Amino acid sequence: MWITLLLPGCKFFSEAERSAPIIVFTFDDQHLSTYENAFPIMQEFGYRGTNFVNTNAPNLGLPTVMTWAQITELELVYGWETGGHTLNHEALNQLDLGVALANIKQDHQNLSDHGLNPRSFALPRGQCPIQLYTMLTQLYQNIRGSSDFAMHHPLNRKALGYLAFQSDWSADIVKRRIQRGILSQEALIIIGFHRFDVDDDEYGNSCPSPTLREILQYTHDLQLKVLPLAEAVSQ
Ligand SMILES: [Zn+2]
Predict the structure, then answer these.
(1) Where do the DSSP E strands lie in the chain?
(2) Tens digit of each residue's pLDDT (9 = 90 or more) over 65-74
(3) What percent of the chain has pLDDT over 90?
(4) How many structural domains are present in the chain?
(5) In 92-197, where does DSSP find H-type helix?
(6) pLDDT tens for each residue of 144-178
(7) Which domain holds residue 82?
């Protein structure tokens, strides 16, 4: 996509046209607040996201976890992407190799069994022994790690970074990250969220709904392309 951008606080690009990064919003760990709080805001802007699901979790009937009906609705009705994230959020470097292999295959199978089309995988805690990595890359087209770095063309779809939102952040931190990506002509920026509007924020990664809306308004105002991960890396 070729667009002309005027960034707040920045001078107008000297070149009239530049390619802009595609923005991906990912939502990890099947939190109900993603469905109840974030999904409606994504809808306001016509955006679709990527859900990374631990596929044993929806079977547990926990009140803060999305149901399979909600997970499948997001993909099959609204065109979101659903990706693998292990059965129970295991750190893969802490499992025996055979156990880890079976875990990843079963997680992928669980998504397929629900009529979903898993193409992307997010490494829990960013950890992956090299012996597993080969199998992962055969099963999935796209692998997301857990650290943020600049991603330029040509993209390495098997080693993607992301910026994980932290609960003490303002929207400005994410906006500045996006500004930086535009100025340095990054191809892709992945912004990751976990939970929304929780009172007991023991993990330090809850995002207030107004902050999410402010971030989405920003990408909307800049006319950035926002896509699920598998579509973004295929552009
Ligand atoms: Zn996770």
Answers:
(1) 2-3, 18-19, 22-28, 50-53, 81-84, 120-122, 142-144, 163-164, 188-193, 195-196, 206-207
(2) 999 999 999 9
(3) 86
(4) 1
(5) 97-113, 130-139, 171-183
(6) 999 999 999 999 999 999 999 999 999 999 999 99
(7) 2-232
Query: In Å, how far are 48, 69, 195 from 77, measured between CA atoms?
Result: 11, 11, 22
For 83-129, the pLDDT digits (tens) are 999 999 999 999 999 999 999 999 999 999 999 999 999 999 988 98
234 CA from centroid of ligand 1 (Å): 24
DSSP letter, residue 196: E
25's tokens: 């919003």
Please identify which residue in the block is written with the tokens 């974030």: 38
Q: What is the CA(113)–ligand 1 centre distance, in A?
A: 21
Ligand 1 center from residue 17 Cα (angstroms): 37
Residue 72: CATH number of its domain: 3.20.20.370
Residue 18 confidence (pLDDT): 56
Cα–ligand 1 centroid distance for 16 (angstroms): 40
